[in-house]
Amino acid sequence: MSPNSDSILSQxxxxxxxLKALFGAASAAVLFGLPARAHAAEASQETTDKLNAAQxxxxxxxxxxxxxxxxxxxxANKNAQTLNDIENVQGKIDDTQAQIDExxxxxxxxxxxxxxxxxxxxxxxxxxxxxxLLASGSFxxxxxxxxxxxxxxxxxxxxxxxxxxxxxxxxxxxxELEAQKANLEKLKDQQTAQxxxxxxxxxxxxxxxxxxxxxxxxxxxxxxxxxxxAAQAEEAARKAAAAAAAANKNNSYSGGSSSGGGSYAxxxxxxxxxxxxxxxxxxxxxxxxxxxxxxxxxWVTNVFRNAGVGYFGGNAxxxxxxxxxxxxxxxxxxxxxxxxxxHSGTGAPGLIYGHVGIYVGGGIVMSNEGAITSKSLDSFIxxxxxxxxxxxxxxxxxxLS
Length: 401
Prior knowledge:
The protein is mainly alpha-helical. It has helices at residues 5-13, 15-33, 45-123, 127-134, 139-248, 276-287, 296-306, 316-323, 348-353, 377-384, and strands at residues 337-340, 355-361, 364-368, 372-376, 391-393. Helices cover 67% and strands 6% of the residues. Helix 6 (276-287) crosses helix 7. The longest helix has 110 residues, at 139-248. The model is unreliable at 1-40 and 251-272 (pLDDT under 50).
């Protein structure tokens, strides 16, 4: 959800249905408010044609907006998979580096051991090896002891070569993984740019849709006014004719009169804790009111501003792409934001802008859902993770712990 356009979008997505309902309701108000014969009253053909054309154009643009929302949701899901791939590759890089460090330490120890033995042998004048050879009781024992010394030296050399080989393989593996990560990071940036372009396109289409909606409402009002005027004229003519007929018959009877004309009053649609900084954010979560329906990111911005951390704007999708990097629950800390870039639970607003909340500890996530709500961590992830998945991180890159 975005701070501003989410609310507009959610209203516009049902505008087509609402306008059609209003169309029928207005006509019914005219017909039920006037006598039975008033059903013949009609608006001018020009107004009717303009209204039909405007409604058709509105439906076409609405379809474009729906298509953009679906495309955005699909792209957000791909972006989520890319983020998962990056996280997995980074884990492999970390594991490989740990193995490299282990082999380096092992190689260093082997070299130190060999160096120590050579130095000790040198300082003693080689007496250790010489004494071993001189202690041989026979020629056969001398050959065996000499072979043993050579074997020890070769074993040291082989062990060092093996470690060097493994280290080289691990270095190559790490290089390959880092290349994979770089490609994935590039793909992520491309996908993020595409989603931003789609958001801009959505806002352009939204502006057109808003204008068309206003045109349709104006034409509907004009049509209803014409229907009302025609119906009232017919009713006046009928009453005049009835009065004249009664007068001609000397008031012998007063047939054909209506049982009350009724009145037409068209309705008006209703516009419907750890560190001090962490604790400050938690306190602000409980004291910061909701800025309104669909303004989840605005509430998060207000919380961090009220907590004295700083101002960080953008919609939920922006915050997700910029600051939410982990799905590892062991890395989740109090004061982190939790967001997704697209989910299906709340319709088109959720598909395009996602949702964002704040983890306040104790397995609880608070967010603005029209009212400020507290959900368990599991239920928050279950509900908002249906599309791109939920991730978390420090808003603005400011580490509070």
